[in-house]
Each structure stands twice: as structure tokens, then as C-alpha cells.
Amino acid sequence: MATEIRLAEIIEALSHALDMTEGQPAGHCVRCCHIGTAIGRQLGLSEGALRDLYYTLLLKDLGCSSNAARICELYLADDLKFKRDFKLVDGTFPQVLKFVLSHTGMQAGLAERFRGLVNILKNGQEIATSLIHTRCQRGADIARQMRFSEAVAQGILDLDEHFDGGGKPLGKAGNDIHIFARIALMAQIIDIFFSASGPEAAVAEVIKRSGGWFDPAIVEAFLRSASEARFWTDLVRPDIEQIVLAAEPGQQQIFADEDYLDDIAAGFARVIDAKSPFTAGHSDRVALFSDMIAEQLDMQPAQRRRLKRAALLHDIGKLGVSNAVLDKPGRLIGEEWEQMKRHAQYSEAILSRISAFADIAKIGGSHHEKLDGTGYPRGLRGDEISFDVRIVATADVFDALTADRPYRAALPVHKALEILWETAGRHHDASCINALERALNSAQLIAA
After folding, report:
1. What pTM was estimated for this model as a whole?
2. What sections of 62-149 are H helices per DSSP?
């Protein structure tokens, strides 16, 4: 039986996670969707093409998390601030040079900063092409996994190509660039400059880049839309998300059934885990360990399915945490630790936007709570922590212990279980640890 939830509702809600990992203000992708579909209508695109454009605009940043760690490594910078500010650069050499000098290694030692700058200035084009290729290819692959059309995937793949051939990663030009990408790139720049400086700045930037970054025909379509006052006033309305949802193109709303919800959760788990090399596969493994616990506890299939989705998405809030924090090899202190703790709140805020994910949102927001009240973000204790949360929390810590982390190597399975048992009744539920241990024994994963 189909779950009565619109696909557009799910994707719009999850697009807020993509805004976070690009360092953009909340609602960036939603506003881009409003801008881009208005342009598409001006161009006379069919309803079917407009629907695919609609999803391209919401999902344009699907691959954005995949270059975050590399940006931190290369530029010795906060990836969220770096990405946010770089989108204001027009690509000319003086602007790029000024940006690199002002954003590289500001918190590093002078020697490290000097080496980083020399590397970037010598290999800048190769570095940028590699980063963009990874981002675009990963985003297109995830879109396909989530059952979107090849047109949507191609729109994401070509996002950073420029009309004059000066873009990346392939240097495509003119009509060789998918029309969805030509529209999406311009919609992105419009929203960024509008949010920073207002309509006049956005219009001026688009006109300046016409024939270079942007297709002049699409620029003209935008200018026709921009001449209508409502085009701009809608962008600042508090109900912009409802406006965009109501304007979904096509004659028939698409609803997501249980299988499709699983595919969407799996797709976004790839976005989450791409954020850091130390979390590759983490969401999948937490989902597996959670299900192993649930199976041992004789939970019903429907409960196990819901728990799996929760486990896949529990860390979605980490997309809003800088890799300078996530990948730090030492102990987090001060604001670093506060930033890390906020990821649980971010997870709950993102997932709670989706009516069908209300229970999942609570798990995302509480998976670092502990039975004795010493967890975060709310300091819940005992019966205030649901049993589903206890399962995911146990699976999450077990995977963290048995995987490599920036500050230590992976621990053997038996040692990880010993650590869990040391905190049984204080941090973790003993019945969950016991179920996990039985499941691992059954699978012969515990060394004698």
C-alpha cells in the first residue's frame, strides 16, 4: 500500500540539508527551484520537462558533500564558509586570486599556509577540475539511484559548465550543456546575489555573465520573469516552500511508496557519508547493526524497515558541520565541540519537515542521548529515551568504535563490545548490547 506522501514534499525538505553543506542560507535550493521553473515556463518548456527541471533545481547539490574533505585538506579552510563565499566569485583571475589568498589556511601556521598557497597556485586548474568532477558525477549517480530521470542526472552533471566553454569539468559549451544545467547554474547565482544584495545586484550579475557563464536566450527569459514584481516578493515570503510545493509542474502529483522511501533514504545516506573519508559507509553500517539488533529482539518487519530508514538518515545534520571539525585528528574543544553537538539538532530539524518521517526525526535528534542524562543535545535520561533511539545509539557507537577515526585506528569487535558493556545501564541499554552481541556471534564476527 502506497504511503500518502508527495515526492516533492520529501525532496524539498531534504534539500535543506544540501543548503547546509554548501554553506547557503536555509531555503536556497527551494528559491532556486522557484527562480528556475519561472525561467523554464518563459522558455516554453513542456510540463514533463518542467517537472524534471523542478527536481534538478532541488537536487542540484546532491554531490556537494563529496568534495568537502578535499577542500579542507587543500585550502586548510572551513569548507562551509569557503563554499559559501566562493559562489560570489565570477571566475576572473583577479577575483579568484584574491579569494584564494583571503580564504586559504587562515587558521593554520604560516609555513603550512605558504605551502598550501604554492600548491594551489601551481595546480589550481587541475585541483578545481577534480573537485567539480567528483561533485557532479557523484550527484548524478545519486539522482539515478533515487529513480530520477536521466535528464535530471544530466542537469546535475553539467551544473558547473559555462556557455562559453570556460566551465568545468569537461569544458562543454553552448547547447552541448544540458538546458537544465544552464538554467540551474543561473538560478543559483541569482539567488546568491539576491540574498546578499537584492534584486538589482542579481540582475546586474546575470547581465555581466551573459554570453560567458550564461546562455543569452536564458538570460532574456530571466529578465522577462524578473520584470514582474511578484517574482522577487515571493522569494522572501515565509511560505516560499509551500508556494514552490503548490507549483510543482505536471498534471499528477507523484506519491512515494515504501520502496521509494527506502531508495530516497539510501540515496541521502550516500550524501551524508561522502562528507568525510572517516564516515564512508557509516550510515549503511549503522542501519545494518540496528537491524541485527532489531531482528534479535523479534521486532516486526514494518518496525525494522522504519528503523533502517532512521539509521540511514540519523547523521544528516553532519552536512551542516565543517570538515575542519569532523576530520580533526585531536580532541574537539570549545566551539568545535559545540558545533559537533549541533548536528543532532540539525538532523531533527531537517527530518521533521517531512510528515512521514516524524518518528525518524526524533531518532536523528536523540541518538547521542545517554540513559544517565549526560548525552546531548537535551540531556534526556532513562524512559525519556525511546527504545528505537537506544537501538540506533548502540549501533552508532559500535560502528564508531570499529571504524577508523581521525584520532585513532579501528578497534577489534570484541574490544568495542567490552567498551559498550562498561557503559551498560549508564549510557547504553544492556538489552541492545546483548542483542548486538548475539547477532555478531551468530554471524561469527567475534574473534575467540
Report:
1. 0.86
2. 68-75, 79-86, 93-103, 110-145
